[in-house]
Amino acid sequence: MGLTVRGTLENAQGRPRSGAGRPRTNATPPSDDARRDIIEAAARLFRAKGIAGASVREIAAEAGLQKASLYYYFGSKEEIVHAMIEGVLTPALAMQRRLGRAALSEAARLYAYLRFDVEQLCAAPYDCTWLINHGDLNDPQMTAFWADRNKLVAWIEARLKRGVDAGEFHACDRNMVAKAMIAATEYSVTWAERQDAARIVATAEEVASLLVRGVLAPGRNLNALRREAAAFNHPV
């Protein structure tokens, strides 16, 4: 959960990304992306009232739309929640795949991913960690999102294992460390200065450095792997 996050503004139902769409009310000035407006409006109301406490009518009004117009973009309140979570999970999984193919050391690969994840989470217009924790886990789509989140953990575990084998990392409880790293990236959104793009980048670099430094094998140079990772172009 500014940044244009892949997956946030489109969904499997093929609903419109942006454009004029359905009529707006006069309450909120129109923008060129009604879906994003709805997501941001929903995020504000979910934070204030909870997911169950915010009605579709209230979300529509907050976004400057009639209730019927909101349904042109999202079929239900649950679809809005799903779009929010997909919007930060999809790019994270895609980045892991890209890094898996890159010619990098395991340490640089891990650093580049952690930096990316903090940056994109902090730049999102909502706190997706809060959404995941408060979502209805009986929802099959939410269950699928949890499975995808577990893939993020498994990828980090694989980096740690290969890094230990290559002498880049010291031995550790890989599952525990991987979970701690994911938690650290996710919860950075709760304290980071998210309105300042430069501070987001600095925060991402510092958090990634702190996490990787904790597992680096003796004699490994953090600045060297940061330079290696910097050569990897990571679009956000």
Automatic annotation (TrEMBL):
Superkingdom: Bacteria
Domain HTH tetR-type: 32-92
Keyword Methyltransferase: no
DNA-binding region: 55-74
Keywords for this protein: DNA-binding, Transcription, Transcription regulation
One Pfam family hit: TetR_C_24
Region of interest called Disordered, as start-end residue ranges on this chain: 1-33
GO molecular-function terms, A-Z: DNA-binding transcription factor activity; transcription cis-regulatory region binding
Gene3D superfamilies xref list: Homeodomain-like, Tetracycline Repressor, domain 2
Name of the protein described by the UniProt record: TetR family transcriptional regulator
